[in-house]
TrEMBL record:
Protein name, per record: Polysaccharide chain length determinant protein (PEP-CTERM system associated)
Residue ranges the record marks as coiled coil: 165-228, 325-383
Transmembrane segments: 15-36, 422-441, 480-500
Keywords, alphabetical: Coiled coil, Membrane, Transmembrane, Transmembrane helix
InterPro entries in the cross-refs: Bact_polysacc_biosynth/exp
Organism phylogeny: Bacteria, Pseudomonadati, Pseudomonadota, Alphaproteobacteria, Rhodobacterales
């Protein structure tokens, strides 16, 4: 109880300091509560509505996940250009005429609050609020926000669907040109290699086999005709030889033939006397063989000469034989010419067949490229159809879109400042600041004020303590001075704050500047 009395006396002694601080803060709070302008808050809600046509029937080409879509809208809504465009058509912030574009953008961003809510199996909802100095400004800014959101969402969906369709149409056109080029390339290759294409290989192989068979048959026919010709000539020669032999039989024998007959006669005579192993008989037989060899050689030479002469002579002398020989010669010439043509065609076919494998490789590569391009072209055509359907869905607003759940409504009463709470907060802050100042002053002053302080500082127990005794006049003077001080504080502090507010800087501006320094807002 003694300590409480002591602390109460110390507080009473420092009460003017407490009153100065508490009164200053409270008066500032009261003045601020009276001078702060009202703030009106408007709001609206939008939701990302799901597609009206199921994906199994028709798929939209402008689909974006709902949370991502709301995030994109949020980022585009608060861009500098968009906020300045809105501020150019209406009064969005207080004292807008005196603010720079950067300050206007900062103020509008500070006054705008966006809250997104979404979840699994839940609709994606965005709530947007705006604080403005007047109800009309709050409603106008929110309507501008809403118009921008709906317009930008529609433009984004339409542009995305149209750009998707244009992209695939360009793909179809490009792939169509590539198809035409590749087809023309294949056609040119087939035209330049028409005799060496793989698809005609079987025909050429069978043709080659038939031609080779015909060549063989032609060679056989030529040989047959040549044989027949030779037989005709030989028959004619044989007849001539028979006539020549008859004539030769009537002619005189030659010396060698006479000698041969003489040696034969000697051999016959020797055989009657000697045996076959007798040297005399062996010598005669060897001599006979030598003479017969010589006679045979001479006969062969003479026969060839006679044959060559008699052949021509026979052909020339016998019209029938000459006609047959000419017929055989003509047939042999025709057959040889035809065989030469067939052999040339066989050679060409063999060269063509030899070139076919290389052409097959080149043609297979061209056809493979053509098939790949054709597959890409078919896929692109299918995607063009789907993109066209998606574009139609977006143009008719049957796809995923942002719709208004709660439109902006002009607020009827301000949401801040809460003047009563501001005054109470100022009063509490003033009292706390005053108590803090008193505590600080007392903590700094270490002079002894009671017997316990003397004991604590000097370790001496005083016999008795005698307080300062004031006279009646001193007590009255001290009390009057305190009252005048309190009165001066009660009157002077509000007067000083009023002069600062009226002549130097408004209290709300000073408070806002202080909050801006720490990045805070009302």
């Amino acid at each position: 109880m003694t300590d409480l009395s002591y602390y109460a006396s110390r507080f009473a002694r420092r009460f003017p300091w407490f009153l100065i601080v508490a009164m200053s803060v409270t008066t500032f709070a009261v003045g601020l509560a009276m001078t702060l302008p009202p703030v009106y808050r408007g709001e609206f809600r939008v939701v990302v509505e799901s597609k009206q046509i199921p994906d199994r029937l028709a798929e939209s080409t402008a689909y974006t996940p709902a949370p991502e879509q709301l995030q994109l809208i949020e980022q585009r809504l608060l861009t500098r250009g968009n906020l300045l465009d809105i501020a150019a058509t209406l009064t969005a912030v207080r004292d807008q005429e005196d603010l720079t574009p950067g300050e206007i953008v900062s103020a509008m961003r500070a006054n705008t609050t966006l809250r997104r809510s979404s979840g699994r199996d839940l609709a994606a909802v965005m709530k947007i609020t705006y604080d403005a100095p007047t109800p009309e400004a709050a409603s106008a800014v929110l309507n501008a926000y809403l118009t921008f959101i709906l317009q930008r969402d529609a433009e984004r969906r339409t542009e995305r669907a149209v750009s998707t369709l244009e992209f695939f149409e360009q793909q179809v056109a490009r792939l169509g040109e590539e198809l035409e080029k590749k087809s023309a390339q294949i056609l040119a290759f087939k035209t330049s290699n028409s005799d060496n294409l793989p698809e005609t290989l079987d025909f050429r192989m069978s043709r080659l086999a038939r031609l080779e068979e015909r060549v063989s048959r032609g060679e056989a026919e030529i040989a047959d005709r040549q044989t027949q010709r030779d037989q005709v000539i030989r028959m004619a020669e044989l007849a001539d030889r028979l006539e020549s032999s008859a004539a030769m039989g009537r002619r005189q024998i030659s010396p060698r033939e006479a000698r041969l007959e003489k040696v034969h006669a000697e051999l016959d005579a020797a055989l009657t006397v000697y045996s076959e192993q007798s040297p005399q008989v062996q010598r005669l037989r060897s001599h006979i063989a030598q003479i017969e060899g010589t006679l045979d050689a001479e006969a062969a030479v003479r026969a060839r000469e006679i044959a060559s002469a008699t052949g021509a002579e026979t052909a020339a002398s016998d019209p029938l034989v000459a006609m047959q020989v000419r017929e055989f010669d003509d047939e042999i010439s025709i057959l040889s010419t035809r065989n030469a043509e067939l052999e040339a065609e066989v050679t060409a076919l063999q060269a063509s067949i030899a070139r076919t494998p290389a052409n097959r490789i080149v043609l297979d590569g061209l056809l493979r490229d053509l098939r790949n391009i054709q597959d890409q072209y078919n896929t692109a055509v299918d995607r063009v159809s789907r993109a066209s359907t998606g574009e139609r869905i977006e143009l008719l607003s049957h796809g995923q879109r942002i719709t208004v759940v709660e439109p902006p409504v002009e607020p009827t009463k301000p949401v801040k400042p809460n003047r009563f709470r501001l005054v109470l907060a100022g009063l509490a802050a003033g009292i706390a600041a005053g108590l803090g100042l008193v505590f600080l002053i007392e903590s700094i002053n270490r002079s002894p004020r009671r017997p316990d302080d003397i004991v604590a500082q000097f370790d001496v127990m005083p016999i008795a303590t005698i307080p300062y005794i004031r006279s009646r006049q001193q007590a009255v003077a001290d009390r009057g001075a305190k009252l005048l001080t309190i009165l001066a504080i009660l009157v002077g502090v509000p007067a000083v704050l009023y002069l600062v507010h009226d002549r130097y800087i408004p209290l709300e501006v000073a408070a806002q500047t202080f909050l801006d320094r720490f990045g805070m807002h009302w």
